[in-house]
Amino acid sequence: MKPLFAHVRRATYNTTLMYNLRMLIAFTGTAFVPYFLNFQLATIPLTLGVVAAGLSDIDDRFSVRIMNLVYTAVGFFITSASVQLLFPYPFLFAIGLIASCIGWILLGSLGRRYATIAYGCLVVSVYSMLGVHLFDEWYMQPVLLVIGAAWYGLISTISFLLFPVRPLQDKLSACYEALGNFLFAKSNLFDVDMTAESYQQSMIDLSLENGKLIGVFNDTKTALLTRLKGDRGQKDTRRSLHYYFVVQDIHERADSAHISYQELSKVFQHSDILFRFQRILSIQGKACQDLSQSILKRQAYIHNKRFKHAFENLKLSLEKLQQEQIYDQVWVNALYALYQNLKSIDAQLRNLETERNISLEKSKQFEHQLKDDDLKGWSDIVTRIKQNLTPESVLFRHAIRLSIVLLIAYIFVQITEIKYGYWILLTALFVSQPNFNATKRRLRLRIIGTLVGIICGLAILYFVPSLEGQLLLLVISGVLFFELRSKQYAQATAFITILALINFNLDSSGFSAGIPRLIDTLIGCALAWFGVSFIWPDWKFRRLPRTIQRSLQAQCNYLKDVVRQYHEGRDHGLNYRVARRAAHNTDAEVASLISTLATEPDFDPYQKTLAFEFLCLNHTFLSYIAALGAHREQSQDQDILKLLDQALDDIQGALLRDEVPDLSSQNMLQTIRQRLKQNSQEDQTSLIILQQLSLMLSILNQLSRLKQSLSHDRDNDATELGSL
Fold this sequence. Notes:
It is a single chain. By secondary structure, the chain is mainly alpha-helical. It has four domains: 1-163, no CATH class; 166-367, Methane Monooxygenase Hydroxylase, Chain G, domain 1; 395-538, no CATH class; 540-718, Methane Monooxygenase Hydroxylase, Chain G, domain 1 (Up-down Bundle), CATH 1.20.58. The longest helix is centred in the N-terminal third of the chain and has 34 residues, at 196-229. Helix content is 77%, strand content 0%. The protein has helices spanning 2-12, 15-36, 43-55, 62-86, 90-107, 112-130, 140-162, 166-187, 196-229, 235-254, 261-267, 273-297, 306-324, 329-350, 360-367, 378-388, 394-416, 422-431, 436-463, 467-484, 489-505, 510-534, 540-568, 574-596, 605-630, 638-656, 663-677, 684-712.
């Protein structure tokens, strides 16, 4: 009996399995309960209610989750009832369509929770158009949609009560998995056969991995705040909080750069030292992935014993380099700093489990080290909405663009009276994204998925004529749609198309809806492409100057806080963490934006080359700051502190105010290099400061020139109104 119980318990650790089981129960209920009640037509709105609720479901603490269910139910009913009541009046319906579309999208400015509910309401509005003639009573479809949503909400809440910490554990696991990928990408910079082209590609790959990691960090922070607000002293919550701070600290050290990697590969290409650094980074990446699995399986993490031997051999190699005195001591010092950094990462991984039992009081202190982005009252609501009521807001532009697209689709349906025409609106809603690149990708995948779904769906209707068999396949299609929707969009589209065909076959219109569904999808995709290309388009290259400026501002703020701590002493509080996270967030924005520029038309190839060069240099500069931050300790050397202050002023002037560094800056660089060569009397902290300042100042002019080239050349075109 015990082994069986152990197997069942291990099965509950599989999040994917439990999520699919939740969806299986939900769709089984909406498919077969009406079947046994001989009210099969109710399956259509009930199933669509589950789909809409599933798309708008987010993790939150119990009290807020209940409120979310209430908001969702009220929003779904009002939306669906409005469609039912206004449908006979095309003019009023069109006005309501525009107003509701803009309103729901702008509601997303209040936060993730409201954004998901708003999106669910938009989906429900189009679903209601599709089923407006199903029932004689106007309230029947809205009520059934809400019942379907409530049914899913009930199952979701029960799942939450059984496994309250599971979503947070999944996100923490994703953090360490992404950190492992980042370390693997970082290890590629220690390639002794590196060329200029391979170095740039490695830096681009590293920046993109860093962007993914920062995105996971942000999601995890939101989940942690959710748990902490409802925390009653649970050990799992405190442990998760500790794991989150550790992964951030490891990332700061892992992202640090104590040396120019391109030059490093040339200087030490005939030494074993780079291979040893590369190997340690690789096995640390593997250790982070092992830790990720340990979190998922709720097992204790066991640190790899190979690390001790690897570090001992690396230290011996460093000592040999120092004794031989073949290489410039500046390079050797930088390698020693990198060695200490990797040792610190190793110590954090090794001691993670032994330090996990944090007191409740300490966890409450940690809570104050997480910036809370939740709403603070009506004034905060008004402020956030006002911030997005401007042409410069991507959300506002998307709201206007989507409302116009849906209005055009509605007018087209009214004029042509095309059969099942409201699929056009549904396709346009699902495909339309705030930017060209995301929309373009979804267009192709949507068309492929719909075509495959129609072929498979019609085959199912033909070869499985029995109602019971079709209902079973409807359930399976619904489960697979939710399993694949965030992983494989084309496959997910295929399964939701199959679900739709089976669903509407309950009204004896499955076969007749197949070809019109494909035609409507093509028209909806065409309208989505037209909207994102010509209706207030949000071209990424127009946002490039502003994004670059934000990134450099955030990096300067990060550096300023690091310099302050060299004056006042090490501080790991909220202000420092916010500054560090802002620098990494904006760097990730730059990487994401530049990586998508290749897909946009009318972007100058030369500017594109400069953009990728800036991407590499921008992340390199951030890595230099991170190294300075990783070793921050109070310094008593007044000359060093003066150099820090002067360097900060020169960096801010060059990057933020486009000032050309004067002769004093060049003299300072020479001073730093002289002190590095005469380092016998310097303490370790001073050496690290001098080394990092030297690295930052050496690329400052190039970074400033690239920033000006990418920003000033497009001043006339960079305004948001320029794309009207």
